[in-house]
Every structure is written in structure tokens, then in C-alpha cells.
């Protein structure tokens, strides 16, 4: 019995080697809309933290250290959300 499963990846054996092609998810419209609105608030929060960091009197006080760590996590979330939107739109 030959059963084919529909997956999000297509694996082909070409003369150059294996080629793996990923297909974008079908329900990406809601994800793109949600992440776009979410990114507006996320970016505002990050810009506010950057402004607070720039306004701190001493660059090595506890508030500045906390904001630097927070901004590192913020940047990771921003990159992940933008990558998710790009993958949903373009594959």
C-alpha cells in the first residue's frame, strides 16, 4: 500500500544532492495580522526601554544593567516575530 502524507516539506533527490523545500502554512493570514499588531506594541516597548537607558545617569547602575538584559531578550523576540511574518508571507 502506497500512502503519501501531506507535509510542509518536500524532499527531492537531485543530481546536486538532496533538496528540501518548505511550504508556508496555509493559515498564515491570522498569524501575520496578529504579529503585525503585536510588533507595534513590542517595538514601542523596546524604544521606551532604549530611551530610558539613554536617560540613565550612569551606564553601569542596576537599572541600566537590567535594561541591557531586557533589550537583549526584546531583540530576540523582535527578530523571531519578523522571521515568522516573513516565513508566513514568503515561505
Task: Give a description of the structure.
It is a single chain. With 91 residues, the chain is of the alpha+beta class. It has one domain. It has helices at residues 28-55, 62-90, and strands at residues 9-14, 17-22. The chain has a two-stranded antiparallel ribbon. Strand 1 and strand 2 form a beta hairpin. Helix 1 (28-55) packs antiparallel against helix 2 (62-90). The longest helix is centred in the C-terminal third of the chain and has 29 residues, at 62-90.
Shape designation: elongated
Oligomer: single chain
Report strand order across the widest sheet. Answer: 1-2
The SSE string, one letter per element, is EEHH
Instruction: Write down the domain tally.
Output: 1
Strand content: 5-15%
Number of strands: 2
Radius of gyration: 21 Å
* Average pLDDT score: 82
Topology:
Layout: E1 9-14, E2 17-22, H1 28-55, H2 62-90
Antiparallel strand pairs: 1-2
Helix pairs in contact: 1-2
Amino acid at each position: 500500500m502506497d500512502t503519501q502524507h501531506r507535509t510542509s516539506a518536500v524532499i527531492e533527490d537531485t543530481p546536486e544532492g538532496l533538496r528540501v523545500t518548505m511550504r508556508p502554512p496555509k493559515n498564515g493570514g491570522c498569524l501575520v495580522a496578529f504579529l503585525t499588531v503585536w510588533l507595534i506594541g513590542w517595538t514601542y516597548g523596546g524604544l521606551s526601554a532604549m530611551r530610558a537607558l539613554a536617560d540613565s545617569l550612569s551606564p553601569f547602575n542596576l537599572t541600566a544593567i537590567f535594561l541591557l538584559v531586557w533589550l537583549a531578550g526584546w531583540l530576540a523576540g523582535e527578530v523571531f516575530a519578523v522571521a515568522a511574518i516573513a516565513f508566513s508571507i514568503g515561505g
